Amino acid sequence: MRYRISGRQIDVGDALQTHVRSELAETVEKYSQRPTDATVIFARDAHEYSCEATVHLSTGLTASAKGQATEIYSAFEACREKMDKQLRRYKRRLRDHHRDRTAPVEFAGAPMYVLAANGEAADSEPESLQPMIIAEMETQIPSLSVGEAVMQMELAGAPLLVFRNEKNGGVSVVHRRDDGNVGWIDTSTG
C-alpha cells in the first residue's frame, strides 16, 4: 500500500509516519485484502490537532475519516477508530461487492467546474447571468450499482455521489436528505 503522510503548517516526523503506516495498515487489512493507497493529512488549529485519512481500495471504493484531539497521536487514533468503525459496518457488503465484481470499478472522466460565489443579497439583481468559473479540473465518475453508490457515499462521508448506473448506463445521483434518508435521482427514466 502506498502512503502519503503530510502536515499542514506542521512537521510530521519519522516516528509518527511509522506509527501511521503500521496502525492504518492493520486496520484496513482486516476488512480489505487489497488497499491501494492512503492519504493522511495532519493539521493544527490553535491547541487542537486534526487528522484526515482517505483510503482507496482496489475495488474502486474510497473510505475517509476525520479525528480531532489535543495531541497529534490521539487525533490519529480517533481518525483510525472512525475508519475502523466504517469498514467494520460495511465489511459484509465490501466482501460481497468484491465477490460479485470480477473486474475493478470502471471510471469515466468528466469536466468539473468551480463557480465563484457572489456576495450579493438574494433579492438583488446580478450584474451578469453568466457565472464566473474560477477552477476547471477533471473528475472521475464511477460505474456502480445503486447499492454500491450508497455504500461509497457513506464510506466517503460525502453528502452526494454522482455515478453511472451499471444497470441502465445513465447518470444517477444518490444524496443524503435532510430527514436522514438517502435520495436517488435516476436520469434514465426521464
Protein architecture, described:
This protein has helices at residues 14-31, 72-89, 91-100, 146-156; strands at 2-8, 35-45, 48-57, 62-69, 107-115, 133-144, 160-165, 171-176, 182-186. By secondary structure, the chain is an alpha+beta fold. The protein has 2 domains: 2-98, Double Stranded RNA Binding Domain (2-Layer Sandwich), CATH 3.30.160; 105-115 and 132-189, SHC Adaptor Protein (2-Layer Sandwich). The longest helix has 18 residues, at 14-31. It starts with a strand and ends with a strand. The model has no long low-confidence stretch (mean pLDDT 81). Required for dimerization of active 70S ribosomes into 100S ribosomes in stationary phase; 100S ribosomes are translationally inactive and sometimes present during exponential growth. Residues 130-183 form the Sigma 54 modulation/S30EA ribosomal protein C-terminal domain. This is Ribosome hibernation promoting factor. Belongs to the HPF/YfiA ribosome-associated protein family. Long HPF subfamily.
